[in-house]
Write a structure and sequence with these properties.
Layout lengths: L1 H17 L4 H21 L29
């Protein structure tokens, strides 16, 4: 909320100074984008649930199990 208020306020001040109507909206959107970016950087991604078995190869692709059902 504070990012929207701060950057929206900056945009409003620019609108008043330049006698325009576009910078308030741009400021609010910029504040939202920066706030989302900060949250993602601070908290990172969601960890996979415990007990899930996802194996990947060194190049990041998913790997299949050694034997499949019905095959040896």
């Amino acid at each position: 909320m504070s990012g929207m208020a701060v950057w929206g306020g900056v945009g409003w001040l620019l609108d008043q100074w330049l006698d325009t109507r576009v910078f308030f909206a741009v400021g609010v959107l910029l504040g939202v984008a920066v706030a989302i970016y900060v949250v993602v950087v601070k908290y990172g991604t969601v960890d996979p649930p415990t007990g899930s078995r996802t194996r990947t190869t060194p190049d990041g692709r998913g790997s299949r199990s050694g034997t499949q059902k019905g095959q040896r």
